[in-house]
Every structure is written in C-alpha cells, then in structure tokens.
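Predict both folds.
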Amino acid sequence: MADFSHINKDNHPKMVNVSDKEITKRTATAKTVMFLGVEVISHFNKNELITKKGPVFQTAIVAGIQAVKKTADLIPMCHPLLINGVDIEINILDSEYIEILCTVTITGKTGVEMEALTGASITALTVYDMCKSISQKMVVESTRLLKKTGGKSDIKL
C-alpha cells in the first residue's frame, strides 16, 4: 500500500511540508461537463443568458475565480497560495450540454490541481443556481483534471 503524504507516522493528519521544494511555474486545467438540457440552453443567445439573478456565464466565471482563491479554506490540507492567474471558459457543446474549463497558474512550491478542480466545480454550481428557475433537471455530470505542469511531473489526461 502506498504511503499517504497527508498522514504522519502516528497515523494522524498532517499538512505536507513544502519548504524544501523548488519554486517552479505550475499550471493545472480541470474540466466540468454539465447537462443543462434543451429547456435551459434554448434560452441562450450567442453564449449569453441573463436571468433575474444576472448574466449567467459571467457571474459563474467570477464565482469560479473566487473559489480558486478560497480553495485552502474549503479543503483542509491545501496550502494557501498566491495565485498568479485564473482563466475560466464556458462553452455550449450542443443543445443540452456545456463544458467548463478552469486553468490556474502559479509560481510556487506546490501545484494547483485542487484549485482548478474547485474553480470548475463552483462555476458549474453557480450556473445551476442561476438557471434553476428555468429547470431543476440540470446535472453536474463530471469534473476531472485534464492536465498539470510543473513540479515533479507533468500530466496530461
């Protein structure tokens, strides 16, 4: 069985010590696929929908950026990070689905995979919140890491 980096020798939780790691440029991109359905998507005009709560995609992107910056407050073993950049893109895939891509960049000692995953997830939940008056049949179907660079290894899934 592999050793867990967040468990000490006494089997108690710990935060990984990154003080000896090298500072490198690190990026991570996460993707969320979400079913909105024809009922919701049909209300969009050129990738834009404004509900009583405001512009859907723009509001969701701002929420996703805020979530990236708050990841360490939400996930206990994440390090608080000085984020260099966040780019969130929302694309309508077809008459029922959207995809959300969240890319996070940092120059630091630890990666930003959790920040990218959190940003994509909260962006999707905000889309849900903004559109639930139209339909509650929406489903956040999947969130996954697409790639990460920097640190010990680069991963492209």
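Second protein follows, with its predicted structure tokens after the sequence.
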Amino acid sequence: MAAGVPTILVVGDSLSAEYGLKRGTGWVSLMEQRLAKEKIAATVVNASISGDTTSGGRSRLPALLAQHHPKVVIIELGGNDALRGLPLDMTQDNLLAMTQAAQARGAKVVLAGMQVPPNYGQDYSRRFADTFASVAKTRKAALVPFLLKGVADGPDAARLFQADRIHPNEAAHPTILNTMWPTVKKQIP
C-alpha cells in the first residue's frame, strides 16, 4: 500500500469473490480497473469469501480493519443469511455492528443491499430489503439498494446468471460495477 493512498476494503460473499468466474472479471476487479482508468489513487482489498454470512463477516472484520486501515469499507453480505433462513434481526444486528466498527476506525461505509426471490413471500422480501436501508439510515452510511439491479430484475435476467441461477455470470459484472460505482466513488477521499 502506497503511503497516503486510501484503501477500499470489500467484505462480501460469492457475488464479490468471483465465484464461478475467471479471475479478474468480477465487479471488484473491474472497480480496480475503473479506479486506474479514472486516475483515482486507491488500493482495493477484496476480502470476500464465497458462502460468507453477516456473522462470518462480523467475526472477520476487526482483523481486516486492523490490518488494512481502510478509508472505505464496502459490506456486501446478507444474501447467504436469507438463503439459510437466518433471523432478520440477527442479520441487521451484524450489519449494524460491522458498519459501526468500520466507522469507529474512520472508514466510510457502503452497504450493498440485496433482495430475495419472490418465493420467499412478499412480507419477508420487503423486510429483508428494508434491513439494509434501516442500517444505512441508522448509521448514516451510504447505500446501494440492490447490488443486482439491472441484472436480476431485467427482462432477460436468465442470460446473466450462471447455470445455478444464483451467481451472475461474467457478462453481468460490468452492470454490477455500474450500479455500485457512483456511490463508492463519492466515498473515496
């Protein structure tokens, strides 16, 4: 890490860890390329782990903050909580704790919101999506309401997913970056 160059720490799950993709083609790698193209000096640390939950991220975050001293922390977790049927209040508590811990270390936080498929029911789906907005509002953190906007909610969404219909394919990641970029860029000192 170059002296004076801010670090952007991404703490996420498979959607940020390039699951099923060729290395260097996921949205986090594309963000590094965009930073270079726009001549924005920043170092990106991708600490994403496929399958991670908010509990896992919460337990890993203190060491990551101490090691990397990030100026921006992107939290892209929660989808696996929903897939595992974990209680929403637990997910919210973990996201709040992570956001607070990062802010206490002087970092700006970007929460990457997620939505669940309609088969979870309208009430659960609404409450799950609201979890991210609630944490962002409570902690005055930046929010991208839906990481997969333009990917999962488009007219031809199936062509943007891998065979498992859960993980976006390589063609979807530029759209994910375009969804994240305006909010992330505003947070970079």
